[in-house]
Amino acid sequence: MIETRDPLSEINLLREENQKQQLQIQKLQQQLEQLLRIVYGKKTEKFIPSIPEQTVLALDIEAIVQPEVQKETITYDRKKSSGTSNHKGRLPVPDPAVQDFQSCNP
Length: 106
Prior knowledge:
The chain is mainly α and 106 residues long. The chain has one helix at 7-40.
């Protein structure tokens, strides 16, 4: 025998399924755009795995744990200058009244 369902409940089920599929399509399109940007994007946007400081896109991949960087303190001694300098200062500003202007009249 042929099973008959209520048309309204069937419509609601189909709408819910359609919404789920639309969300999945949007998610997959965003992931595709991110991957295309990685592969064909600008040089500054490309993912180069040899650079450890570069961030990774959140594509449900485990994060890479970076090792701690050891810091070393270095001290040194230097001789401080005596405080006198050979710099004589700025040159004087030329007097505007002394400037020579030439005018061209047609």
